[in-house]
Design brief:
The complex is a heterodimer of chains A (about 160) and B (about 110). With about 160 residues, chain A is mainly α. Chain A has helices at about 1-20, 25-45, 50-75, 85-105, 125-135, 135-155. Chain A has 2 domains: about 1-80, Up-down Bundle (Four Helix Bundle (Hemerythrin (Met), subunit A)); about 120-163. The chains are: A mainly alpha (about 160), B mainly alpha (about 110).
Chain lengths: ~160, ~110
């Protein structure tokens, strides 16, 4: 059952991930990416990471992709007109990708590790929260400052007159 | 047949390769940006997989990697906001999102 679910959601994620690249219209790409992220969130749930899975749906499939769609519609982007393919870039890009996958397939048999059994049911929101406010308190504060800086920066960048 | 760490790493690697291919092949700067997000998410998947497949500490998974994923998601959200604002400013100046038309630093 678990294995079947894994393959279903992995296929969903990779299929719609490929659709992001191959669909010509940016809006279709963005909507495919939403489905791809939902599949990824399901894989997080299979790994008992419920908190991360929910955050993935809320932040990525919700906020980030809405922002993308909003910008695509704001700029009123039409389907790209077909251009001459840049052949050297195409070959170079495919070589890098194929090399990466070949390396992956070569290394993968070293990771034949089964899922360890857990003594207690996971309570991951509490555990992540405890770590976040004890061991990782300083990075947590820095992230808060980063978000503030990003917000101010975005407001500054999107003013009409960029001096 | 049970799930192993290799399954998750394979899927994560394939998602990363898809994102990489998208960055290399697409010419629309917004789609390139989406493919970057895909690559970040592939890294997140492998981090969560490693977190779950490590020997449990005190009967629980190792949550340090999940904290890292949390930070990656936060930074990625900030990055998307700033990046899209830059793209909008770029579009106002040049009226295009095609990377081959965006070839000068100063305008």
């Amino acid at each position: 059952m678990e294995v079947a679910l894994f393959w279903i959601f992995a296929a969903l994620m990779l299929g719609f991930g490929a659709a992001v690249i191959f669909l010509k219209s940016p809006v279709s790409s963005a909507l495919s990416l939403v489905v791809s992220f939902l599949g990824l969130a399901a894989l997080f749930l299979l790994l008992d990471a419920f908190f991360i899975g929910i955050i993935q749906v809320l932040v990525y499939a919700g906020a980030v992709m809405v922002l993308f769609l909003f910008i695509i519609m704001l700029l009123d982007l039409k389907t790209e007109r077909a251009r001459k393919l840049n052949i050297p870039a195409l070959i170079g890009g495919l070589m890098v990708v194929v090399g990466f996958i070949a390396l992956l397939v070569k290394l993968l048999p070293d990771f034949h590790i089964a899922k360890p059994a857990l003594a207690r049911p996971v309570n991951d929101v509490a555990s992540v929260g405890m770590l976040l406010f004890s061991d990782y308190n300083l990075p947590f504060q820095i992230i808060g400052v980063l978000l503030l800086v990003a917000t101010v920066g975005v407001v500054l960048l999107s003013r009409k007159e960029l001096k | 047949m049970t799930l192993t760490l290799g399954h998750f790493l394979l899927v994560s690697g394939l998602l990363f390769a898809l994102g990489l291919a998208g960055v290399m092949l697409r010419r629309n700067i917004i789609v390139i940006f989406m493919c970057l997000e895909m690559m970040l998410n592939a890294a997140n998947l492998s981090l969560v997989a490693f977190s779950r497949f490590r020997p449990p500490i005190d009967g629980m998974p190792d949550y340090n990697a999940q904290i890292m994923v949390f930070f990656i998601i936060t930074v990625a959200a900030a990055e998307v906001a700033v990046g899209l604002a830059i793209i909008v400013a770029l579009f106002r100046a040049k009226q295009t999102v095609h990377v081959e038309d965006l070839n000068s630093l100063k305008f």
